[in-house]
UniProtKB/TrEMBL annotation:
GO terms for cellular component: cytoplasm; nucleus. The keyword Disulfide bond does not apply. The keyword Oxidoreductase does not apply. Its EC number is 2.1.1.203. Residues 641-667, 676-693 have a biased composition (Basic and acidic residues). It is an enzyme of class 2 (transferase). It is found in: Nucleus. This is tRNA (cytosine(34)-C(5))-methyltransferase. S-adenosyl-L-methionine binds at residues 138-144, 203. Belongs to the class I-like SAM-binding methyltransferase superfamily. RsmB/NOP family. GO terms for molecular function: tRNA (cytidine-5-)-methyltransferase activity; tRNA binding.
Length: 721
């Protein structure tokens, strides 16, 4: 579940100072002059709204966009957070007036439960079900992808959280959407069949004038030629999307632009070319409460002077490549036949939102030039591929039988992600020969700059079964390292993994799955891996052991001290700790449960390490501060977490999951900060214990070459849009 609220959280004056929503504008809100006569004249000509509404339209555009926030996560936590925010903050606010403007209290968006801020509605109109195969063609930076992932996980509610992109059924790849390659999957009869997607989102690059309330620089930079430059790219992306869409599937085309050249013109040209294979869906009954305008049936093609080209023939020869035929409106008859009015335009003054455009396309039969679904044999596939490097299926043994129930031997294959450096990922895209060029211009043969494209794969085989079946890693774990020791094990979906392996010659995979186990060659510990905070919620339900039920005071101790000794915790926790040897451990805190078997997704679950005589958590400083506050602890009283302490003195481990594993540094810090009663207890006895413990904790080798990265989603369950 996710819930929404919208409201002017900041009075105008504060918004001005804070720069809230003024993303690209470093000069501050007050200095931007919200006037652009070219913009006004252009859209008056285009009739995007009746002229009598013009003032209301312009006046709404000039106001800052209300702050909206969406509570993500899984049902239990989302409800708790919403109740908390309402109870502790919203209920205490009063409606105020400032400079004549009424500042409302935050309120839930009126059009239903599962709705984010307006600009996210396209993802909702996709109607994603948990067994769908979904392709998000222009995914960066990923906010709609996050919503799609939530929809894929919707059935699992409390079992499987959908934390932004942290999902076993998501794969991020880097390709130019216009030439997104055909991918194949293995059929039970051993043949390979082309993947066709149930749902596709084409949230294409656009001029973005619907976001003027947020991106105020657009007031200054706006020009009608942006739409002219983008039209062909948008059309190519949409066209490629329709080729990859399964018959019976749905595709959402969306922009944050008011401009019909980027909207209705793109949609109508692709629809007409499809000769009835594509239809515009009637979405008037969806998202009740969302005020919308029908798609336009006619518009003008205007050049920069500004002069109208009434028909393609009016364009001077030297500009013919720029002004292409598909920019002009279809005949009245065609516009009627394809139901162009079913496109949706959202305007800011209807519900105090941004502006955007959405069209939902349904594929009812194959496209005119689309052949029967391709089925190839493995040999055929290999013949067509230049490179025949096959997946390395090195065996890796996960030795920690304590940690994961039924974990025995796991066969781990290679992900290709490590073959792509960050630079490569954004610069080198060679279109594959099977990206159809039907109806679109030739694919560029030179290197082109591209953004990420996200491929989300169905999770028909739920991740949950994989561990219970005794194959923790068997067919759903990936590692991204070639040769040598495997660093991290990523928990993924069986289909995602199969598709990566089947299509590794074509796919530039950036990311897939959830980091669940990290290498940790600690001396004296019979396990080559440790748990990762990032993947703990996925793996927790299958852990039979290594769990400790802790009290609130224990969490406070754990969060405020680097490596607290066992004896400093509650009796109950100490008793449990005594039963464990050194290694990965999980702390569970939940005031509502008395037994570990009652732990649920609402429980606080923290990954840590049990040394000989002390423990530690694998959380970064921000997360520890967050949990400390949540448990009523005082951050300012903790030397390890105090804001005053320079960041660099809190070292982190190389995997990014927590503090550096050199326990001595932390212990020295602990011993050195003698200003609290607790720390004065660091006596001779402790010194002996400390030395003993260092033998265990300090010998854990940090993972090689991993860049530290915190898990901010842990600490920030409320996301702002
Ligand atoms: C409107 S934004 C998408 C926003 C995204 N859907 C979200 O909700 O966060 C369009 C994105 O497409 C990217 N893009 C531009 N050209 C592209 C191409 N040829 N293929 C794929 N993505 C492209 C842009 O860089 C931009 O990040």
């Amino acid at each position: 579940m996710y819930l929404s609220a919208i409201g002017n959280l900041w009075p105008n004056g504060m918004a001005k100072n804070s720069g809230w929503g003024e993303k690209q504008d470093r000069r501050g809100y007050a200095e931007i002059i919200k006037e652009n006569k070219t913009f006004e004249n252009y859209y008056k000509e285009q009739n995007i709204i009746p002229i009598e509404e013009w003032e209301a339209f312009m006046s709404a555009l000039k106001k800052p966009l209300p702050a909206t926030f969406r509570i993500t996560g899984f049902r239990g936590q989302a409800e708790q957070v919403l109740e908390f925010v309402k109870g502790n903050y919203i209920n205490n606010l009063v409606t105020k007036t400032q400079d004549g403007d009424v500042i409302d209290k935050p309120y839930p968006l009126p059009w239903g439960h599962r709705v984010g801020a307006g600009e996210h509605d396209p993802a909702l109109l996709l109607d994603v079900k948990s067994d769908h195969l979904v392709l998000d063609m222009c995914a960066a930076p990923g906010s709609k992808t996050a919503q799609i992932i939530e929809a894929l996980h919707a059935d699992e509610s409390d079992k499987q959280p959908a934390k932004r992109l942290n999902s076993p059924c998501c794969m991020v790849v880097n390709h130019d959407a216009r030439f997104f390659p055909k991918l194949f999957f293995d059929r039970p009869d051993g043949k390979k069949e082309q993947l066709m997607y149930d749902r596709i989102l084409c949230d294409v690059p656009c001029s973005g004038d619907g976001t003027m309330r947020k991106n105020t620089m657009i007031w200054k930079q706006w020009a009608q030629t942006s739409a002219i430059s983008l039209h062909n790219l948008q059309k190519q992306i949409l066209h490629r999307g329709t080729e990859l869409l399964a018959v019976g599937g749905k595709l959402v085309y969306s922009t944050c632009s008011f401009n019909p050249i980027e909207n209705e013109a793109v949609v109508s040209s692709v629809l007409i070319a499809s000769e009835g294979a594509l239809q515009l869906a009637d979405v008037s009954g969806l998202l009740p409460g969302l005020k919308r305008r029908s798609g336009l049936k006619s518009w003008k093609v205007i050049n920069e002077t500004p002069q109208e080209y009434a028909k393609p023939e009016d364009v001077p020869d030297k500009k013919k490549r720029r002004y292409i035929e598909s920019m002009w409106p279809p005949s009245e008859e065609d516009a009627e036949r394809i139901n162009l009015h079913r496109c949706v335009r959202i305007v800011p003054h209807d519900q105090n939102s941004g502006g955007f455009f959405v069209a939902v396309l349904e594929k009812v039969k194959r496209l005119p030039n689309e052949k029967e679904p391709i089925v190839k044999t493995v040999t055929e596939i290999q013949r067509t591929e230049d490179n025949t490097v096959s997946a390395d299926s090195t065996e890796v043994t996960v030795k920690d039988t304590d940690v994961i129930e039924n974990a025995a031997t796991s066969s781990v294959d290679e992900d290709i992600a490590d073959t792509i450096s960050t630079e490569d990922a954004v610069t080198s895209v060679t279109p594959t020969d099977d990206a159809s060029t039907e109806g679109i211009s030739e694919p560029p043969q030179k290197k082109v700059k591209t953004e990420k494209v996200t491929l989300i794969l169905s999770k028909k085989t739920p991740l949950i079964t994989l561990m219970v079946m005794g194959a923790v890693a068997g067919d759903k774990m990936l590692t991204r390292s070639f040769g040598g020791k495997k660093r991290n094990l990523y928990y993924t979906n069986k289909r995602v993994k199969q598709i990566i392996l089947t299509n590794q010659q074509k796919l530039k995979v950036i990311n897939s799955g959830i980091k669940t186990l990290c290498r940790s060659d600690a001396e004296g510990v019979d396990c080559s891996f440790r748990l990762s905070q990032e993947g703990i919620i996925s793996i927790f339900p299958f852990m039979s052991d290594r769990k400790v039920l802790v009290e609130q005071s224990d969490v406070i101790k754990l969060m405020s001290t680097e490596c607290p000794f066992d004896y400093t915790f509650s009796e109950k926790m100490q008793t449990q700790l005594k039963t464990f040897g050194q290694g990965s451990i999980v702390f569970v805190c939940d005031p509502e449960i008395s037994d570990l078997s009652q732990a649920s997704s609402k429980s606080l679950i923290i990954v840590g390490w049990k040394g000989k005589t002390s423990v530690r958590s694998y959380l970064d400083k921000n997360s520890r501060q967050h949990y400390l506050r949540m448990c009523g602890g005082d951050v300012s009283q903790s030397d390890a977490l105090s804001e005053k302490q320079p960041l660099e003195t809190i070292s982190r481990d190389a995997s990014g999951d927590g503090p550096e594993q050199d326990d001595r540094t932390a212990q020295e810090k602990f011993a050195g900060s003698a200003n609290s009663e607790e720390k004065k207890k660091t006596n001779k006895n402790d010194e002996t214990l400390k030395e003993a413990d260092q033998g265990g904790l300090s010998t854990i080798k940090a993972e090689e070459g991993q860049v530290g990265a915190s898990d901010p989603s842990e600490a920030t369950p409320v996301e702002t849009n």
